[in-house]
Amino acid sequence: TGAAQETWNTADLVRKDKAHMLHPVSNLRQLQEYGPLVMARGEGVYLWDTDGKRYIDAFAGLWNVNVGHGRRELADAMREQGERLAFSPTFFGLATPPTIELAAKLASLFPGDLNYFNFTSGGAESNETAIKIARYYWALRGKPDKVKVLSRMMAYHGIAMGALSATGIPAYWQDFGPRPAGFIHLTPPYYYRHGEGMTEDEFVDSLVRELEETIQREGADTIAAFIGEPIQGAGGVVVPPDRYWPAIAEVLRRHDILLILDEVITGFGRTGTLFGMQQYGITPDIVSFAKGVTSGYVPLGGVGVSSKIFDVLAEPDRVFMHGFTYSGHPVACAVALRNIQIIEEENLAANAGEVGAYMIGELSKLLERPYVGNVRGKGLMMLVELVADKETKAKFDPAQNLGGRLQAATRKRGIIVRCNPDSIAIAPPLILTKEEASTVVEAIADSLTEVL
Ligand code: PLP
């Protein structure tokens, strides 16, 4: 299997792309020169472009195609619900069976008392929703000034204005005008670059101290919530020291500040447990998710809130004035239910843990090379950090265009990974085998040899 079933006119597609596509998160000038790489088909961990060249999708789309490509069951779920009832809202007290069943299923899966679910179409909308629910909760509790949001540098929470404000990667904001006020960015738990001269324990203590000092300075009565990814993804796969999350959660509890965990990448098996929070034994007040909930087959996101939060929201006799047209889209929810069934039946979280540990071990052999500074990850999300000088951890000169050159070298070898100016991020589908993992590692090793 796997040969392109249709024939495509790649040149014509590339011409039309250059003439009409405004690509997100892409170098628009370079695209005008080189054109896009056009993917036509997928099956399992593989993708085929319109010329029939095969790739291992070692980035699972955008960290989201957890069950792999080409799943007939998910296409069936889509078609069946589409024929039965493609759309009916969840506004005004309406609902559909798959939406209700998905909420009930999620309540059974999430730890603690995360029992109530609100749906969106993606990660940014989910984080907007989480932040607004936190503020609404405090407003209903008679504290309308508890509105600020604590976040971390290197965080990625999405690009809509509120989620963007929580995001800690300045390149996403710097040319887009003013952002909402009241978002405060703390130091990320990035031991390799911020823990210099400290043990991991001392590093965690310093981050806890920074949080305490920030709360003292701003006033706990002005802070609604702290938002964070259990493991930071797009900012650089920052795996915190084990003590970090329990210690942060304790401080927040003591100061009556809500914890929002962004499980958009870490949810639905990626880190080796069903949710990233289970790696650290913590339960937030509010959780946001997207991506892996449908493995990307259709857009869906959402938030879960604890019973404590819900009880406050449901207390007054008034309308909760928040929602999107597509909140609880029945087709998306039907796909999510089937997708979660696959993740459970095929034990994909356990596979991510096992193959991820193997793959991180194999990638760690690259640390022998003079330009590989750090290899980190958990489950099937990992990153190889490249440095110009291992002693000083100096970064490469961006003029060297390492990202672009590594992208070309890896694609030439038939693997799709995310090549940044000083790192390679890897996040394959959770069905990856050890053999496929070895193929990816080998292609990365050879690409590094070629470029550096
Ligand atoms: N939160 C995290 C942790 C993410 O990784 C992303 C996207 O990569 C988002 C939020 C935003 O999700 P979306 O692009 O679906 O809005």
Overview of this structure, please?
This protein starts with 9 loop residues before the first helix and ends with a helix. 40% of the residues lie in helices and 16% in strands. It has 16 helices and 15 strands. With 452 residues, it is of the alpha/beta class. It has helices spanning 10-20, 28-34, 60-63, 72-85, 97-109, 123-140, 161-166, 191-194, 200-218, 244-254, 277-280, 307-313, 330-345, 348-364, 402-412, 434-451, and strands at 39-43, 46-49, 54-57, 114-120, 148-152, 183-186, 223-228, 258-262, 286-289, 301-306, 372-378, 381-386, 415-416, 418-420, 423-426. It binds pyridoxal-5'-phosphate. Pyridoxal-5'-phosphate (PLP) is lined by residues 62, 122-124, 127, 156-158, 229, 233-234, 262, 264-265, 290.
